[in-house]
Amino acid sequence: MPAQSFEDLQVWQKAHQYVLGIYRVTRHYPKEEMFGIVNQLRRASASITANIAEGFVRIGQKDKLHFYNISQGSLEETRNFLILSRDLGYISKSDYAELKGMAAEISRMLNSYCQGLMKYY
Questions:
Q1: What's the pTM value of the predicted model, to 2 decimals?
Q2: Which residue in 33, 37, 75, 76 has the fewest CB atoms around it within 10 Å?
Q3: Alpha-carbon Rg of the chain, whole angstroms?
């Protein structure tokens, strides 16, 4: 049965869990990072799910692809900030590994979805 809402998409569900994970770990960052890395990580992670949701309602494949590609960019942005967080000692090795694995899975799913949409061009 086709998805009735963006919430039915597995990629959105997994990305939503990723966003929750980002929010969970960033609660423990130093206060001086609240308007730096924390803000950037949270905004970029929320952008992943927001663009999947927006892409879901778009009619044409080109429009859908555009929003899913923005989601991919936001995902890569979070990966960058997680590496920085790891290197600065703001995130535990286990939290980093968990989020890295989640990001890899979401990336694979988004890439597959985009590849499927590109077949219709």
A1: 0.93
A2: 76
A3: 15
Q: Tokens standing for 38?
A: 């924390």
Render the burial of 26-57: b for 16+ CB within 10 Å, e for the rest: beebeeebeeebbebbbebbbbbbbbbbbbbe
Distances (CA, A) of 41 to 6, 8, 61, 83: 22, 25, 29, 11
Domains of the chain: 7-118 (1.20.1440.60)
Neighbours of 120 (CB within 10 A): 10
pLDDT tens for the chain, 121 residues long, are 778 999 999 999 999 999 999 999 999 999 999 999 999 999 999 999 999 999 999 988 889 999 999 999 999 999 999 999 999 999 999 999 999 999 999 999 999 988 887 776 5
Return the structure tokens found at 47: 């952008």
* One-letter amino acid of 68: Y
